[in-house]
Amino acid sequence: MTVDDLMAIQPVIPVITIERVEDAVPLAEALVGAGLPVLEVTLRTPVASDCIAAMGQVKGAIAGAGTVLNTKDLQRALDSKARFIVTPGLSVSVTTESQKAGIPILPGIATATELMAGLDLGLTRFKFFPAEQAGGRAMLDALKGPFGHIRFCPTGGITLDLARDYLTRSNVACVGGGWLTPKKLIDARQWDAIAALAKEAAALKRG
Predict the structure, then answer these.
(1) Longest dimension (CA), the chain
(2) What residues pair up with 16 in beta bridges, in sequence order?
């Protein structure tokens, strides 16, 4: 599976921070059942790797690792059988090691300089992060001129309404959505409420 394949599956990729392993399977089932099989699990908690492994066993789920900061994190992700890698910034070592391992990677960039560094590594698909704080839709519109062949997954500060607007842009393949799995709903194990948010996101149209 390529990065393009992943980005084409659904308009919104849930960005998930999970603190209890026992929540991993029901959360994945809720999201997959609502039409969002690609799941980014951030490596921000001690149980994140175990959660990726558990989610990967859910039928239809494509569980990957986010917030991969270094090659140690990358190895954790690989050990958990993560299907893809997402980084908040551009790391040469993480990118090259991911490429060697044959695992799709979506590195984060926020500037044209970082984007060009990614081009030097053979990349043409990036996470635009933190999207709203880094210039949002206006920044993506500006980048389109010199980088018309680049496609992005904007993530950071995006809501359902903002996602609708981002997805009208030809250089936006999908968006990352932390709003789909808020901590309060996970803590309360309100899987039906999360599924409802996921269904709304899955129904968004791309321009």
Answers:
(1) 46
(2) 41
**Catalytic residue status for 72:** no
Specify whether 29 is catalytic: no
- Segment 110-164, tens digit of pLDDT: 999 999 999 999 999 999 999 999 999 999 999 999 999 999 999 999 999 999 9
One-letter identity of residue 156: G
Peptide bond into 130 cis (omega under 30): yes
> What domains can you pick out in the chain, each with its CATH number?
3-201 (3.20.20.70)
> Angle 48-55/71-79 helices, nearest 10 degrees?
40
Which of 19, 40, 97, 100 is labelled catalytic? 40
Task: Out of 81, 97, 127, 144, pick the active-site residue.
Answer: 127
Residues 2-23 have pLDDT tens digits of 999 999 999 999 999 999 999 9
Q: How far apart are CA 125 and CA 6, in angstroms?
A: 11
